[in-house]
Each structure stands twice: as C-alpha cells, then as structure tokens.
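User: Structure please.
Assistant: Input sequence and predicted structure:
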Amino acid sequence: MRRAFVTAFLMLLPTPALAQEDVGQGEIMVTASRRESDGYDEKIPLVGLRRRADFAVQEVAITGDTRDSTARHNEMFAMIRGAIELAGKRGVQLAIGDTVIEPLTLANYRSLTLTKDSRPDSERVTFLVKTPLGDGVDSKTALDRIDGFVKAVPAVGRALIEPTGDLTLSVVKPDQYRDEIVGLVADDARKMSQRFGAEYGVEAKGIDRQVEWSRAGLTDVFLYIPYQLTVVPKR
C-alpha cells in the first residue's frame, strides 16, 4: 500500500527542470546553501532527511612575510606541497572551494591565488582541511585530528599555517537523497490526507525542485526539498 501510494504520488509530479549549475551532484559545503545562491524564499519544511554529514571541514590559511616576493612565494607553495604530502598520513584530505568542494592535489596546488595580508610584504592563501565523519568520529575527534595535522605540517622559512573560522560540514552529492526525501514527503502527505477524510486530498507544490541543505547539529545536516502541501477538496 505504501509503495503504491508513493508511486502514484510521484507520477503526478512535474518533471524537474535541469539546473544551470548542478551543484547537488558535487561535494557541498553546508554553510553555503542552495537557497542563498538561487534566491529561494520558502521556509525550510518540517519534513526532510536528517543525517550525519560526510566530512568535517576546517578552513586554514598559510601566510608568509619574507621580504623578497619570489622567496616568499616559494616558501608558501613549498608548505602547501608539504601539507598535501602529509594529509593522507594524518587521516585528512585537502580541498578548495566555497560552495562546491574539489580536491587540492599536487597537480593543481600551484593554481591557488595568493592575496595581500594585513601586513606589508605579507601574503596569504587559504584552503580546506577535511576529515570523514564515520562511526565513532564526533566533532571533537574531527577537530582534534585536523588540529594535529595543522601542527604537524613542516614549516618552510617564514611561512606559517593556522586554522581560520569555525569547523563546518560537507555532504557528497546531496541530490542522491532526492528519492528518499520525496518518499518521506509522500508519507506525510498520505497521513495528512487521511486526517481530513475521504473528501479531501493533498496537493504538493515545489516538490520538483532540487535538494537543499542546512546544518542540523554539530555533525548532522538536514536535506530537504522546499515543497508546500495544501489540503484541497477532491473533484
């Protein structure tokens, strides 16, 4: 009965339009929501999927203030290279990106942009350090692991590495949970329809939109579709 209702519910939905930028198929930083980037105004619905995030993520900065710019750049990039080579040994991964996160590797680290720091003859560069949130890995364990890694990165000249900002989260391919979320919404719609009696049905709007995300705790995220349910008389 439940499966038949969900199937019928899905058949009545409009076909989703393709997004101009299908960010939901990448690894997403949870602090940067699709809502903010696409301009949605709807409130977060009550029904969605709460789950543990895939990674805890910490931004770090490498700064350098060696007076000679060439020497300064060489020191900073050498320290980034050392961080990349050390990461796997310390149970972390390095990445870049604001909304969609991509790996930072020996093949692309030289493409990082160095920017002016607050002091004369000083520059800085930022990237991300992340660690999986598996069984037995809570926010404290993740933070301790990242802090241990940062302290272990070999110093090069006058270059320094330090964390910036707070620990945040990321989710890999949030759109993969779309069917599960729609199933939860369909169950809620069925229960709501039953409460109002046989003369009424439930109309779903916005269910064709893509998955959005928000933080729901120290290590949890809330994945949802910005839908609206309306009780309407059956025709």
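The longest strand covers residues 160-172.
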